[in-house]
Every structure is written in C-alpha cells, then in structure tokens.
Amino acid sequence: MELKGNAALIIIDQQKGILHPRLGRRNNPQAEERILDLLALWRRTARPVIHVQHLSHSPESVFWPEQEGVELQPRFVPQRDEWLVQKQVPDAFSATGLEARLREAGIGQLVIVGVATHNSVESTARTAGNLGFDAWVVEDGCFTFEKADYFGTPRTAEEVHGMSLGNLHGEYATVVSSARVLAAG
C-alpha cells in the first residue's frame, strides 16, 4: 500500500453533538485517538486535511445549526490551510463542491475517518469510489451506534460497523487499520 504525498485526510462530522448520550452505545471508543494520530501525521507531512461538518435541516438533530452540537470539537478545528466542507446530507460530495476542489488540487487518494460508519462515512466512501478516487476507510478511525435493522432486529454498534465496512471493502474503498496507514506515511 502506497500513501501518496498529497493524499487527503477526510475527517467526517467530528462535532460536539456526536458525543451526545441520546445517540446510544457506540463502538471503537479509541476512534478519536486514532483520528488524532492520523491528523498529526498529515500535519507533520503537510498533506491536505479536509474537515467535514454536518448542518442538519432537523431541529431534533444533534447537528442542528442553532445549538452548540453543530460545532466542531476543539481538537478537530481546522488549522490554517485546512479545508472545511459543510454538508446537509450524509454524503460529503453532495452539493458541496468537494469533487471539483479535489480534482483542481490534483488529489486522487482519500483517507476517510469519522462518523457514523454506517451513515456519512459509508455514503462518502461509496461516492468517492464511484467517482474513481482511491478511497481508504480507516476501520479503527470510525465508529457508529447500535441500531435495529430493517426487520427490527437490534444490532450492536460492532455489527453495524462491521457490516458497513463489509459493504465498502473491495468495491468502493479499501478498509485499512490506522497502524497500516501510519506505517505507510
């Protein structure tokens, strides 16, 4: 695995609201630490960093713009020269101009982390793959929450996470560990 010198790190929805207890039990309690490890590497090597922020249409959402849950967590606030992409649907490419900015910058490889694995991460990674980007999803740099499946069967956060990664790997993206990305860096 080769990590390109201009590979972009895409950090999805690391906002204050994602820590709200009402979202339920999550997996990967160390995900934020893994994201910070990757962010440190990207900053040290001057690779592009893209922060994605969700602005919900729904007042019930933890990402509703008129409350503090919409704000990025302090440890994930963009630094100078880092991009901020604001989205209103799970897919970071939808109506944001992200694809055009990446193409203009000559970036073809994307390393995707953040939340929720089964929602914004999966949606963004699917589009990245469909658009021809070399997308990597960092399995221990993402997390999700417990959720019932379509038939009403409760699924643990680990099951939801694993199924989402299974949906992506080999078709839309390459699923990797943070250790492999750091070793390639």
Assign the CATH superfamily.
Answer: Isochorismatase-like
Biggest sheet record: 6 strands, parallel
Computed over alpha carbons, the radius of gyration is: 15 Å
Give the H and E element order.
EHEEHEHEEEHEH
Topology, number of strands: 8
Name the overall outline: globular
Total discrete domains: 1
Q: Given the helix and strand composition, which structural class is it?
A: alpha/beta
Q: What is the CATH class name?
A: Alpha Beta
Low-confidence stretches: none
Give the mean pLDDT: 97
Written account of the structure:
The chain has a single domain (8-184), classed as 3-Layer(aba) Sandwich (Rossmann fold), CATH 3.40.50. 39% of the residues are buried. The strands form 2 sheets. A 6-stranded parallel beta sheet has the order 3-2-1-4-5-8, with helices on both faces. Strands 6-7 form a two-stranded antiparallel sheet. It starts with 7 loop residues before the first strand and ends with a helix. The mean pLDDT is 97. It is 29% helix and 22% strand. Helix 1 (31-44) links the parallel strand 1 and strand 2. It has helices spanning 31-44, 98-104, 117-130, 157-168, 178-184; strands at 8-12, 49-54, 83-87, 109-115, 134-143, 147-148, 154-155, 174-176.
